Amino acid sequence: MPDYQPPFTITSKILKQVAVISEKVGRLSVQAETEQALRLRRINRIRTIQGSLAIEGNTLSQQQITAILEGKRVIAPPREIQEVQNATLAYNYLSHWQAHNEQDLLAAHRTLMTSLIEDAGHYRQGGVGVMSGDQVLHMAPPAGRVSVLMMQLLEWLKNTDEHPLVASSIFHYEFEFIHPFADGNGRMGRLWQTLILSQWNPLFASIPVESLVHQHQADYYAALQVSTDQTDSAPMIEFMLQMVASAIDSLATPQVTPQLTPQVKQLLTIIKGEMTRAELQNLLDLSDRKSFRERYIVPALQAGLIEMTIPDKPSSRLQKYRLTNNGQLMT
C-alpha cells in the first residue's frame, strides 16, 4: 500500500451504489455489438464532450459539435471550436493512456488545452483559487507542492485496492483539490475519471457520465465543496456514483422504436446536416408542398426524428431541418 492515503469514508450508500452499478454494467456488457450500438456510442461521445465543456462555459450544441467532427464550417467563437477539437482528440486517445502515469496525465492536459493556454501540459507556477463572485471557495495548495502531491496521488491510484468506481471518484476529488494546472482542471478531472473507469471496463469510454454531471452542475460543485469542508471525499464519491448509475440507465433503458412510414424512412436517408424544405423536396422529386409537409415533415417532427433549426419561428424563410440523435440512430 502507498504511504499517502486520501481522506475518505466508505459509507453504506457507496457500497450499495458500487454493487448496483456493477450489476448494471454486467447487463450492459452482454448487449450485442450491433451497428445501431456503434452509432449510439458515437452519439454518446458527442454528449460527453458537450457536457464536459458546457460545465466550463462552452455554448456549442451537440448538433454544432457533430458538424465540427464532420469537418463542416460552424459559426461560433474560435476558442469554443478549439475546445471541441481538443476534447475530441483527448477522448480518442483514452485507450493509449495509463491513469497512474504522470507523463500521460501531462500529455492529456496538453491535448485538451493546446492553443488555449500557454503552459498546456505543465503544472501551474502560481497560486490559484476557486471563486464564487468575490468569495474564495477553495485556495489550492502552493504551486511548489503540486508536483509532489500529484506524484503521491498517482502512486496511490496505482496501488490502491479500492474498487475503480470508488478510486476514480476519490481521484477526481483529490485532483480538483490540488488544482494542478493553471486552467482546464475541471475537464481534466472528468476525463481522468472516465479513463480510470474505462480501464476497469471499456464500456465507460462511451458512457456519457459528463453529460449527466452537466445536468446536475450545481450539485457537482456542492459535492466538491462539502467534501472539502468535511475533509472527506465521501460526498463526492456518492455524487459521482449516482451520476454513473444514471448515465448507465440512460443507455440501458429500452428505446421504443417508432413505426416509420416509407415516406419518413426515405426522408431520414437524405438529410445531411441542415437542409431547407425546398432542398429536401427537390431531392425527393416531389412537387406538392402541402403533401410533402403532411406526409414527410410533420410525422418526422412528431416522432422526434428531425428538428427545426429555428423552432420558435416554424414558418421562417430561413428554416432548415436536421436529424435529432434518435433520427441518426434510425438511419
Structure description:
The chain is mostly helical and 331 residues long. It folds into 2 domains: 12-18 and 31-252, Fido-like domain (Fic-like fold, Orthogonal Bundle); 262-330, Winged helix-like DNA-binding domain superfamily/Winged helix DNA-binding domain (Arc Repressor Mutant, subunit A, Orthogonal Bundle). 60% of the residues lie in helices and 5% in strands. It is built from 15 helices and 5 strands. It has helices at residues 12-29, 35-55, 62-69, 78-92, 102-113, 143-159, 164-178, 185-200, 209-215, 217-230, 234-252, 262-270, 277-283, 289-302, 325-330, and strands at residues 129-132, 135-139, 275-276, 306-308, 320-323. The strands form 2 sheets. The chain has a 3-stranded antiparallel sheet. The longest helix has 21 residues, at 35-55. It is elongated and about 75 Å long. It starts with 11 loop residues before the first helix and ends with a helix. The mean pLDDT is 89.
CATH 2nd-level architecture of the largest domain: Orthogonal Bundle
- Highest-level CATH class of the largest domain: Mainly Alpha
Strand order of the largest sheet: 3-5-4
Task: Provide a count of the helices.
Answer: 15
What's the CATH H-level homologous superfamily of the largest domain?
A: Fido-like domain
Give the biggest beta sheet: 3 strands, antiparallel
Order of helices and strands: HHHHHEEHHHHHHHEHHEEH
> What is the straight-line distance between the termini?
51 Å
CA radius of gyration is: 22 Å
Low-pLDDT windows of residues: none
Structural category: mainly alpha
- Count of DSSP strands: 5
In the CATH hierarchy, the third-tier topology of the largest domain is known as Fic-like fold
- Please state roughly what percent of the residues sit in beta strands, choosing from under 5%, 5-15%, 15-25%, 25-35%, 35-45% or over 45%: 5-15%
Q: What is the 3D form? A: elongated
What percent of the residues sit in helical stretches (DSSP H or I)? 55-70%
The count of domains is 2
